[in-house]
Amino acid sequence: MSQSEELRQIKEALNAIRMQIDHHIEFQRAASAITQQPQPQWLPRSEDWDQRSFEKWLRSLIPIQTKLERIRLKFFASLSNSTTNLRASIGVRPDDFPTSTLVPTRQNAAPMIVSQNPLVLLPWGTQPLDFRLKPLFDAWPKHLAWYPAFRDPVLSARALQKQFSHIDCPEEDLYWVFARGEKDIFVQICRMEYDDEGCPGFISESCLQESRLPNIPEGSLVLWEPSPVRKKNTRRHSTDKPWIGLGCGTIIDINLQDTAVLPMHLIAFILWRLRHAEDTGYPSYREQRFALEYLLSFASRWGAIQHPFGSFSQNISIYFNIRWMDISKSPREYNDTDLGLQIKRESGDIPHINRKVPMDLHLLEVRHGICLVSTIQPLPFYSLLLLQDREPCAVSPLREYVAVELAERATRLFKMRGGNVGRLTAIGFFLAFLSVLLETIVKNWDVSLDRLDETLVTSLSELKRSRRQDLMFDNDQFSKSDQYFTALQVLRICSDWIKQVNQGLKTLHSQIDISKASLDDDSDDDTNAHTAQDKEDERKRLHEMCSVVMAENEARSRPLLDRIERKVEEVKSLRDGLFNATSVREASKGTSLAEMSGRQNQYILVFTIATVFYLPMSFVTSFYGMHIFDQSGDSSSSQAPFIATFVVLSLATYILAASGLWFIKDRAEHKSNRRDQTYPNEKGKKQPALFGLPSKERSDSVV
After folding, report:
1. Is residue 123 part of a domain?
2. What would the DSSP string read from start to end of 261-323?
């Protein structure tokens, strides 16, 4: 390649980089303008409140046995038709099931059934159930909620339905009952209300704890959900703002705390909370499978299930998954449960070379899944569920306040960006909550990268003469090469995971745009109160919120990507230094071997000359010493033939040896001249230097 072509390619690359920088600057300016100039806030009116829809939403929260059974059958039928590689834990005693079908995945863990389609069931359970899966099928809870006034679960369920069937809003609290086996899982519910301006705000929270109520079964865990109606609220019956004091939304935080198996009771609770809003009386073909897909996407391998966005009539649903890499000095201990779906996460390790004791850093994928279910009306009712492997370490150290802090920060951020978005208010709050969660996860990335830096740190103390050799040369186990290779791959994976979030936000934005276009076609509440201009304003403001979330996350992730890039260059420099030092050492060994080989060749040449010199004498002496030359007379008669033979044979041997040596040398010089004529530009070039040390010139002469 000529020099002009190289300059042209460099110029094109610089122009492409400049265009990317200009595009990024324009994008940041647009996002900054959106943040600095929020649109005028839309204020709700009294006629925007739908009391009957609110009561219908509350009644749908109460789990009914027949509907729970229908969800269970759909759940197992969907798993049987799923092509995703899933694992189901069905027991804790291997003797209960055929050992040939069980594959233990961890020591002291529940046995797993592993196959492409692990749950082979008939849709709707019309055929006999596989006896291996019967414990999993039977583990589905028969009762999720409890009314404390009744000990019998059937009477309790009837009382709940009766209490929540009145036109007036109920003021009774709801108790969700969990089995004792879920004690390692932390569940929290935050109640949200609309303020005077129609913006969601945090009101109260409750956590999963041991039951102390007399009528609830002993040993159960209870999650108390406050009544959606604030008791003794003097502003409750306000005519101008009838939504004041009514709980229109909930945030559910489920922290699995590194549980390896998602228990069936928790699966039932999640599916009910995400699917209760679908029970609106519409035909079954319009029901969405997003709740199950959200659950399976969280439990299965990353990317096995795509992120859907579903909307139908007066309901909208959306979810988003995020993952980051935890790097710790000790392996993560999983909490085992016996019945449920195994949570599949990637894991690995990176060697940490210590001068005395080698240690490994353990890598683990940590995932957070956020899901939203909302109605579509001027003041929507919504449920936001956050399912995560563990709480982010960048928020409150007390887990009882993690969801509260996230909710309060999301509320402040939502108001700062304009507040109420009309029918799409729940989606706007979802984006604000997602932005806050992404901000905390960025801090988790910083902590993980700090721990990774500890394994590859190079300080002045490492550059001392006594310790410099450890950086320059590898050992017999190639520990340094292993460490550098693993570190480069880990950094590449970290960069890919961070970029996946940015790409996922762009996909989310495009899916929301498609959904907004379909909302106007499917919506049945097109009244005069909600004009086309209102819909256009909602569309525009939600688009601005999405743009701000993408711009902020890109701005937060850029320092992480730059830090990873710098670390990659640092590791590459250490690796190149190791390879160069090793090459110099090997080259030095090769030079020593070549010199030793040259000296050996000289010794062999001397030995050969001496051998050739004495060869004729030895041959003639041996030849004439045979018995065929014995004579009875004087020995002087044989001296003349002996001398003549010796002289002739010696001269012939010396001439042939000298001719052979001359022929070999002349042939080598001839080859050298031909090579110089073929490559005249390379004549006289010196060999490249390593570390600035010139290599020795080679000679083609034969010694």
Report:
1. no
2. EEEHHHHHHHHHHHHGGG-SS--GGG---HHHHHHHHHHS-TTSS---EEEETTEEEEEEEEE
Specify the number of domains making up the chain: 1
**Interatomic CA distance for residues 431 and 112, integer angstroms:** 37
Could you tell me if 544 and 34 are in contact, meaning their C-beta atoms sit under 8 angstroms apart? yes
Do residues 285 and 328 touch, judged by C-beta distance below 8 A? no
Kindly report, residue by residue over 540-571, the tens digit of the pLDDT. 888 888 888 999 999 999 999 999 998 888 88
* Residue 41 domain-assigned (yes or no): no
Q: Is 178 helix (H, G, I), strand (E, B) or coil?
A: strand
φ/ψ of residue 250, rounded to 5: -135, 145
How would DSSP label each residue in 32-72?
HHHHHSPPPPPPP-GGG--HHHHHHHHHHHS--HHHHHHHH
What is each CA distance from 360 to 178, 395, 487, 572, 658, in whole angstroms? Answer: 38, 28, 12, 20, 67
SS3 call for 171: coil
pLDDT score of 326 more than 80 = yes
Contacts of 545 (CB under 8 A, 6+ apart): 417, 418, 421, 428, 431, 432
Take residue 186 and report the two structure tokens written for it.
């932390």
User: Is residue 80 a part of any domain in this protein?
Assistant: no
Whole-angstrom distance, CA of residue 156 vs CA of residue 164 = 12
**Opening angle at CA 84, ends 82 and 90, nearest 5:** 80
Q: Facing residues of 259 across strands?
A: 335
Query: Whole-angstrom Cα distance, residue 385 to residue 159?
Result: 27
Host domain of residue 297 = 46-63+143-577
For 298, residues 6+ apart whose C-beta sits below 8 A from its C-beta are: 321, 343, 367, 369, 387
Q: Could you tell me the CA-to-CA distances from 265 to 181, 211, 258, 507 in Å, in that order?
A: 9, 16, 17, 33
List Cβ neighbours of 650 (8 Å cut-off, separation of 6 or more). Answer: 616, 617
What's this model's pTM, rounded to 2 decimal places?
0.71
Structure tokens at 157: 């369920």
Count of other CB atoms within 10 angstroms of residue 319: 25
**Among the listed residues 193, 201, 150, 203, the one whose alpha carbon sits nearest the alpha carbon of residue 175:** 150
> Residue 97, by phi and psi: left (phi above 0), alpha (psi -120 to 50) or beta?
beta
Helical residues (DSSP H) of 634-695, grouped into ranges: 639-678
136 in Cβ contact with 96 (< 8 Å): no
The conformation of residue 459, written as its DSSP 8-state character, comes to -
**Structure-derived torsion over alpha carbons of residues 547, 549, 554, 560, reported in degrees to the nearest 10:** 180
Per the structure block, which two tokens stand in for 516? Answer: 């907004």
Strands 145-146 vs 347-352: parallel, antiparallel or unpaired? unpaired
**DSSP secondary structure code for residue 693 in this structure:** B
How far, in Å, CA of 219 to CA of 205, rounded? 23
DSSP string, 397-423: SSGGGHHHHHHHHHHHHHHHTT---GG
DSSP string computed for 353-374: --SSS-EEEEEEEEEEEEEEEE
| 4 token code pair | 């002009």
Query: Are 316 and 382 contacting, i.e. CB atoms less than 8 angstroms apart?
Result: no
If you count DSSP H runs as helices and E runs as strands, how many of each does the chain have, helices first? 13, 15
Report phi then psi at 254, rounded to 5: -115, 110
* pLDDT surpasses 70 at 231: no
Instruction: For residue 287, tell me if it sits in a domain.
Output: yes
Burial class (CB in 10 A: 0-12, 13-18, 19+), 534: middle
Lowest mean pLDDT among 289-303, 351-365, 385-399, 407-421: 351-365
Tokens in use for 291? Answer: 């709740």
Residue 433 pLDDT greater than 90, yes or no: yes
